[in-house]
Design a protein that fits this description.
There is one protein chain. By secondary structure, the protein is an alpha/beta fold. Helix content is 40%, strand content 11%. The chain has helices at 29-41, 57-69, 97-111, 130-143, 156-169, 192-199, 229-232, 234-240, 243-259, 263-272, 287-294, 303-312; strands at 4-5, 12-13, 17-19, 46-48, 76-81, 116-121, 146-152, 176-178, 202-203, 281-282. The chain has an eight-stranded parallel beta sheet with strand order 9-8-7-6-5-4-3-10, covered by helices on one side. It has a two-stranded antiparallel ribbon with strand order 1-2. Helix 1 packs across helix 2 (57-69). The N and C termini lie far apart (45 Å). Mean pLDDT is 93; it is low at 326-334.
């Protein structure tokens, strides 16, 4: 497997990242450990979770898996903080020092590790000044609790603001950004990808399969089955099950057929091979889903393939806005 640098850190990671959102929830501890072992055997060395996934159960499941296989030190392990972990405690969420420090200590215990390779702020916040967030993260780096820190779903201007604040205050700077990015939603190509390329930010796209739509399990004119994400959620179904979205999917399916690949493998390969992208996050619930995703590493996307995709999913635009966020909201100024 061809490894890539994580931003400008020099750390080498696999071109696919194993996301663990399903672990400790739909996927039990035993199956989660087996999936992690198989991913590591295939060459994946980048594993990502979050404290809020199943309220800590995902981190616990990942911790048990590494305790079982003894391969923690060979993995770049990432988790996140921001979301509410206690409905009765208003301070058990957000990007302030108290939550970041306490959240890190709790994640270390659940993951059964002494340090985190990458600690990420799960969402931006206009309630907390960026210098408070950065100082807390800088302290964790200096204490050895974390090696690097990153953001998730921050706007390009917010990433640049953090870089400016780090320079002004002499603090460690952000190394990575996780953003929603897939063929149906290419909005980060306008500003965020150029920022990542200019400033050496590792870009780790989440939901590269558009919540499962790009796997090809949904068909034009057919009602989604119960028990599937789009079948159980009108919000997801109404947004994705549209003619423009199916035009994109059918193009991906046609390319997949020509390459003897699956639609999900083509969608993942396209994302992983886009300029500026470091490592898309896969989120398998089952071993069979993982095996399918691993096949993306063998798929080569040609310039002709990109041109065909661009015709139905124009660069910089969203056929389906996967994530709605107001990145224009003013931040509290310091």
């Amino acid at each position: 497997m061809e490894y890539r640098s994580l931003g400008r850190t020099g750390v080498k990671i696999s071109p696919l990242c194993l996301g663990c959102m399903m672990f400790g929830g739909p996927t039990d501890d035993s199956d989660s450990a087996d999936i992690i072992d198989r991913a590591l055997d295939a060459g994946i060395n980048f594993v990502d979770t979050a404290n809020v996934y199943s309220r800590g159960l995902s981190e616990e499941s990942v911790g048990k898996a590494f305790k079982r296989n003894g391969r923690r030190d060979r993995v770049v392990l990432a988790t996140k903080v921001h979301g509410a972990m206690d409905d009765d405690d208003p301070n058990a969420e957000g990007n302030h020092r108290r939550n970041i420090i306490q959240g890190c200590e709790a994640s270390l215990k659940r993951l059964q590790t002494d340090y985190l390779d990458l600690y990420q702020i799960h969402r931006p916040s206009s309630e907390v000044p960026i210098d408070e967030t950065l100082r807390a993260l800088d302290d964790l780096v200096r204490s050895g609790k974390i090696r690097y820190f990153g953001f998730s779903t921050f706007g390009a201007w917010q990433v640049v603001e953090s870089l400016w604040a780090s320079k002004e205050l002499g603090l460690n700077r952000v190394s990575t950004e996780q953003s929603p990015y897939h063929i149906l939603d290419r909005r980060i190509e306008r500003e965020l990808i150029p920022v990542a390329e200019s400033y050496g930010i590792g870009l780790i796209p989440w939901s590269p399969l558009a919540g499962g739509f790009l796997t090809g399990k949904y068909k034009r004119g057919e009602s989604p089955a119960e028990g599937t994400r789009f079948g159980d959620s009108h919000e997801w179904g109404d947004k994705h099950l549209t003619d423009p979205a199916f035009d994109v999917l059918e193009t991906v399916e046609a390319i997949a057929g020509e390459k003897d690949a699956t639609p999900s493998q083509v969608a993942l390969a396209w994302c992983a091979q886009q300029p500026g992208v470091t490592s898309p996050i896969i989120g398998p619930r089952t071993m069979s889903q993982l095996e399918d995703n691993l096949g993306a590493a063998e798929v080569e996307i040609s310039d002709k393939d990109r041109a065909r995709i661009d015709e139905v999913a124009p660069p910089g635009r969203a056929v389906v806005p996967y994530y709605e966020a107001d990145f224009g909201a003013p931040r509290w100024r310091w």
